[in-house]
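User: Sequence recovery, please. Input:
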């Protein structure tokens, strides 16, 4: 089902299989919270995330890891140059995510020298 309907380019070709994850490493807090209490075979409802709507199933569990299958439906794209511009809630969401990733050391910004000097 994920191969047909999911927008998650990282998992759709594997039927939505995320592989083994620790819940603290799941990048979407709402998804991590929703799958944490589920037993093997459990499925979430629709979860609103920063990327879009997700449905997840717990395939297996280990002591500190979880094996998931997910379907992601991406949130609609925002036209930056359209007459409506970018909604402030969207810009704030992106800025907040970037700040959190920087604090966690998950973004490494590298600046190259311009060829002209």
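Assistant: Recovered sequence (117 residues):
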């Amino acid at each position: 089902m994920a191969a047909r309907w999911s927008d998650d380019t990282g998992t759709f070709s594997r039927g939505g299989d995320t592989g083994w994850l620790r819940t603290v490493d799941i990048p979407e807090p709402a998804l991590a919270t929703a799958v944490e209490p589920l037993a093997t075979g459990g499925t979430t409802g629709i979860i609103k995330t920063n990327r879009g709507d997700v449905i997840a199933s717990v395939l297996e569990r280990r002591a500190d890891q979880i094996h998931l299958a997910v379907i992601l439906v991406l949130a609609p794209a925002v036209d930056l140059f359209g007459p409506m511009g970018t909604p402030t809630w969207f810009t704030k969401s992106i800025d907040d995510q970037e700040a959190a990733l920087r604090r966690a050391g998950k973004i490494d910004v590298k600046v190259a020298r311009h060829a002209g000097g």
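The chain is about 25% helix and 20% strand.
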